Amino acid sequence: MGAQQVREGFAALYGAEPEGVWSAPGRVNLIGEHTDYNDGFVMPFALPHVATAAVSRRTDGVLRLHSGDVEGGVVELRLDDLAPESDRNWTAYPAGVVWALREAGHAVTGADVHLASTVPSGAGLSSSAALEVVIALALNDLYGLGLQRWQLARLCQRAENVYVGAPTGIMDQTASACCEEGHALFLDTRDLSQQQIPFDLAAEGMRLLVVDTQVKHAHSEGEYGKRRAGCERGAALLGVDALRDIPYADLDEALARLGDDEEAVRLVRHVVTEDERVEKTVALLRSGETRAIGPVLIEGHASLRDDFRISCPELDLVVDTALASGALGARMTGGGFGGSAIVLAEAADVDTITKAVEEAFASGGHTAPRVFEAVPSAGARRVS
Ligand code: ADP
Ligand code: MG
Fold it and tell me: Quick one: pLDDT at residue 219?
């Protein structure tokens, strides 16, 4: 869905040209899973898939929302009526952003919005953050709010946590708002400091595939909450603010202190080793040893499967099949219990791996996965 189509869609709906068109991408996380709510490190990059929104201001306290991807017409809301957890529909994401901006004291007086997205929804690729960030950036520009990218990401996270009622960390929104083409974003989720790490696989003869399993196991949200609570409990037992505060060098001692608290041991071990894997990945990419990140991704998957216990048969099947067919590395990405996996491979092996994964899914009786190449792309921007 191009910017021009979204612009035309807006004009057809609202009878006037929009003031502008913006886009914001979905993301995949290269490494650093379930670390963002532990104040740790993550390393996402932006996908070429984007949410695109045509937006105009209004002065009458009305917000009109329309998505070309959802059945139903324009939804009209009054800004004064916006209240946390009052909306269970898709409109909660953009309305939540408007609410968060106004809550933070920014004078937003209304908007007309028409949007469309190429980010697969519910696949762990952050279609929700793309939706939030595109609205936040549009309103920031139109209303001259002067907020920086990281501040927009914070407000979007607040929209999702408080208004939508979904407990998520800061990674998704920051990735969508701050990523740069050809780079992965090394983000410290404690202080939001960021570094753009060059990540141009094509130039080195490699590819990164995203395999969307198209499954979403029903209990996934409850399990996310349980892991999050379990990590907080682990931090409390160890007397730290967040698991980020346990240095990798002190891991064995920390685990010994947890004794036979088997659950805490597993969760703490995942988070502390995962932070270490992010730092290792950054170091390898910086020194040009890109192929050497493969084993780090594989270790990351094992940790998510065995210690954090959030993988599922479909994700394991992608990883095992890809590795058996010559992939350099593979792991589940995102929240777990479905969604997507990533596969790092030599360009020459991509077709073989893709075919092997598709065949494994067919013979296992699973829905066909959606496989596409992920090229590190630009973050949110004004497109017209
Ligand atoms: P993810 O962010 O991993 O894709 P979420 O459950 O966090 O999954 O967000 C998906 C939700 O975002 C959808 O259920 C829908 O409410 C909203 N959404 C995503 N894309 C669109 C779209 N193009 N139009 C309307 N709503 C969308
Ligand atoms: Mg989401």
Answer: 80
Which ligand 1 atom minimizes the distance to the CA of 121?
4
Distance CA 111, CA 132 (A): 14
d(CA 338, CA 343): 15
Is there a catalytic annotation at residue 316?
no
Structure tokens at 304: 């998510």
CA of 370 to the centre of ligand 1 (A): 17
Cα separation, 274 vs 278, whole angstroms: 6
**Element at 382 (helix H, strand E):** strand 381-382
The domains of the chain, with CATH numbers, are 3-197+378-382 (3.30.230.10), 202-373 (3.30.70.890)
Q: Are 126 and 47 in contact (CB under 8 A)?
A: no
Q: 314 with 279: CB under 8 angstroms?
A: no
Query: What's the CA gap between 258 and 234, in Å, rounded?
Result: 8
Confidence of residue 218 (pLDDT cuts 50, 70, 90): confident
Which of 121, 173, 213, 215 to mutate for ligand 1's pocket (most ligand atoms within 8 Å of CB)?
121
What tokens appear for 376 in the block? 């590190």
